[in-house]
Amino acid sequence: MTLRIAVGTSTIELVEGDITRQQVDAIVNAANAQLAGGGGVDGAIHRVGGSTIMTECRKIGGCPTGRAVATNAGMLDAEKVIHAVGPVYRDGRQGEAEQLASAYSSAFGLAEELGLRTLAVPSLSTGAYGYPMEEAARVALNTAIDFLREHRGVDLIRFVLLGSESFNVFRRTLEEAAPTQRLPRPGAS
Fold first, then answer.
1. Taking the domains of the chain in order of start, what are their residue ranges?
2. Is 42 annotated as catalytic?
3. pTM of the full structure
């Protein structure tokens, strides 16, 4: 399944699938602050991308919550991996939404700074970090829309969602955020 909307001259796209199989300039990783690898999206990116990604992560040493850093993409079909560190969800009153928005905007801004025009992005913090999917989708999509309205250096932000449940939450949220900008993709189901 795929859903697209135009934001100015750029596009936000939702797809259900495997982020490690995306052919883009940069894949955004749901990293931890130690850049030490882990499970979920982070583990998959390191497994498929290979050891050169971890070698660069060790040289960088870490990344604070709400920020992002870039490494090579190893064997992934991308130029770079952008490691974005989202917050652990506690109760929604500890600045989690601001930290999550900052992680996304840092990743988008770093991509623009590096001249990377197409991005594959996961749903940050919704796995082991426990962020409720509906709230996370709102933060993610609003941050992406705001970024693309203010910047012209990124052409495509593709949210790659694992499973139909995650896809449908993001789809509903995107349709609410921009119902008149919806563009069907040829062959979309």
1. 2-183
2. yes
3. 0.93
What's the rounded Cα separation, in Å, for the pair 149 and 147? 5
Pick the CATH number of 2-183 from 3.40.220.10, 3.30.70.1050, 3.40.50.300, 3.30.413.10: 3.40.220.10
State what percent of residues in the chain have pLDDT above 90: 90
For every residue of 2-30, DSSP letters joined together read EEEEEETTEEEEEEES-GGG--SSEEEEE
SS3 state at 164: helix
pLDDT tens string, the chain, 189 residues long: the values are: 889 999 999 999 999 999 999 999 999 999 999 999 989 999 999 999 999 999 999 999 999 999 999 999 999 999 999 999 999 999 999 999 999 999 999 999 999 999 999 999 999 999 999 999 999 999 999 999 999 999 999 999 999 999 999 999 999 999 887 654 544 444 444
Q: Which entry of 18, 25, 42, 77 is annotated as an active-site residue? A: 42
The C-alpha atoms of residue 105 and residue 150 are separated, in whole angstroms, by 11
